[in-house]
Design goal:
By secondary structure, the chain is an alpha+beta fold. The chain has five helices and eleven strands. A hairpin with a 3-residue loop joins strand 2 and strand 3.
């Protein structure tokens, strides 16, 4: 906004004319001499424009600039908070050893296959024997760095055909050994559901391997089992390659980045899957 030759009134120096202007300062000529003021900060505090229409236009410009600066400061504060959280996470990872198998894989029954993608939580089932029989299972290894892998196979299918239906990060405040109901809730953001066609490409035993019996592909009993951190990263990497929708690819990429950060994994050096089906 050009303010050259506009008449102003200063609280101390009285009336004057604007004789110079740039992005940061205005120069005003008074009877006592010429002085510089910060633009636009001086307006409203020390200087008033005598022309009302010009004053109104300038007020709108100042209000817009103040809103932009407020938004910029808000963004800076959010960035500072994010950096602080990331630093806290780094310290937590540094000071606490992460179990190499702190992920969980579920065997979903038919009812759960219908409900899990609306409820986004899965039960670990109940203890079958001992003093705690009938009580909810507490998945002690699970924490905010854990992911829940969702798998199933048809009753008429062999175990080798077990498919990965989706996966989610565990809720960021969840701790398995403190769980009272045996439910494992999902993170609000990091959730992936595969289509039927995608699930057919994502076979569980391409990733999972019994290291003592590498050719064995059996799931004898139990609602869940623990799963290696690296295997989960491999699954996410393969899902990214499998997806075609740009938004879903971006979601999976963000998921992988978050997962690797939470588990202190190098996202650029994830080995290729080498599960029992690949032996």
């Amino acid at each position: 906004m050009n303010l050259i030759n506009e008449e102003i009134t200063h609280k101390i120096f009285g009336e004057g004319d604007i004789v110079g202007q740039d992005d940061s300062f205005i120069t005003v000529h008074f009877n006592e001499g010429t002085k510089k003021f910060v633009y636009p900060d001086a307006f409203g505090q020390f200087i008033k424009l005598q022309d009302r229409d010009t004053a109104k236009s300038l007020k709108k410009i100042i209000s817009k600039r103040e809103a932009e600066e407020e938004e910029l400061e808000k963004k800076r504060e959010e960035e500072r908070e994010q950096l602080a959280l990331e630093q806290q996470l780094k310290e937590k990872i540094k000071n606490n050893k992460i179990h190499e198998s702190s992920q969980i894989v579920f065997w979903l029954d038919e009812e759960e296959q219908q409900s899990v993608f609306s409820d986004w939580q899965v039960s670990t089932g109940k203890v079958q024997t001992g003093k705690s029989k009938g009580e909810p299972n507490r998945p002690a290894r699970l924490g905010p760095n854990s992911a829940g892998l969702l798998t199933a196979r048809g009753s008429d299918q062999p175990e080798t055909d077990r498919q990965i239906l989706g996966l989610y990060m565990v809720n960021e405040i969840f701790t398995g050994n403190l769980s009272d109901d045996g439910m494992v809730p999902a993170h609000t953001e990091f959730r992936i559901k595969l289509t039927k066609q995608e699930a057919e490409e994502m076979l569980f035993w391409s990733y999972y391997i019994n290291k003592s019996h590498p050719h064995r592909m059996t799931w004898n009993s139990g609602k869940y089992r623990y799963f290696d951190n690296v295997w989960t990263a491999q699954i996410l990497k393969d899902i990214i390659a499998l997806k075609t929708d740009k938004e879903e690819i971006k979601l999976a990429e963000n998921f992988l980045e978050y997962f690797c950060k939470m588990n202190a994994l190098d996202m650029d050096n994830i080995p290729e899957a080498n599960g029992a089906l690949k032996q």
